[in-house]
Amino acid sequence: MAFADFAWRASLRGHASFALETAMGPQAASDADAPGAALDALAHGVLIVNAEARIVFANRAATAMLTRANGLRSDSAALSACDAGDTQRLRTLIARAANADARARLGGAMLIRRPAPEEALQTLISPLRARSTAMLIAIDPQAARRGVETRLIALFGLTPAEARVACEVGNGLNPKDVAEALRILPSTVRTHLHHVFEKTATHRQADLMWLIAQLAIARSD
């Protein structure tokens, strides 16, 4: 896993947990009934589910995903994937994370396939402390990139081309790989990257990775 992926996911998991606790007060992780509007501020889908994969709460982004039924859907109030094999694995991970025996609870992660050309949803499942529930975070990588590019342009004055390069470098690619991915010359990548570092006041790829991870978390609409 690239550092950017790790930073993005770890940061998102932390923000979601913090939002859950802030929204729900002192009994945050114990009560999964009213996570509140704080989770709606997150750009990625966040669901609270019980051990049977029945949805207790879905934030705004997750509700949109379920409505589109593109990767994840609610089947008779239970969460499922479009692919039967993915559904079985997803429900196994949820059951493990929401195990009634707190000592047996384990988190997990999986890719949920979608019809081409859509990229798979990146899905993280984490145990909550009580009531046999788990938190599921679903990341649409394509939507995430579009959101980050828009924020880079708005916040730092990057051009669209610079924003695309920033996102690729922020996801751990080197200039040669970025050039191949975007079908541009390596020298063009280096020029764009110089402007990106200058405009964002970052100096290393690791700094840019962390910036990208932070910008990917919150909604801007």
TrEMBL record:
Residues 155-212 form the HTH luxR-type domain. SUPFAM superfamilies: C-terminal effector domain of the bipartite response regulators. InterPro entries: PAS_4 (IPR013656), Sig_transdc_resp-reg_C-effctor (IPR016032), Tscrpt_reg_LuxR_C (IPR000792), WH-like_DNA-bd_sf (IPR036388). GO terms for molecular function: DNA binding. This is PAS domain-containing protein. The lineage of its organism: Bacteria, Pseudomonadati, Pseudomonadota, Betaproteobacteria, Burkholderiales. It comes from Paraburkholderia acidisoli. Transmembrane segments: none annotated. GO terms for biological process: regulation of DNA-templated transcription.
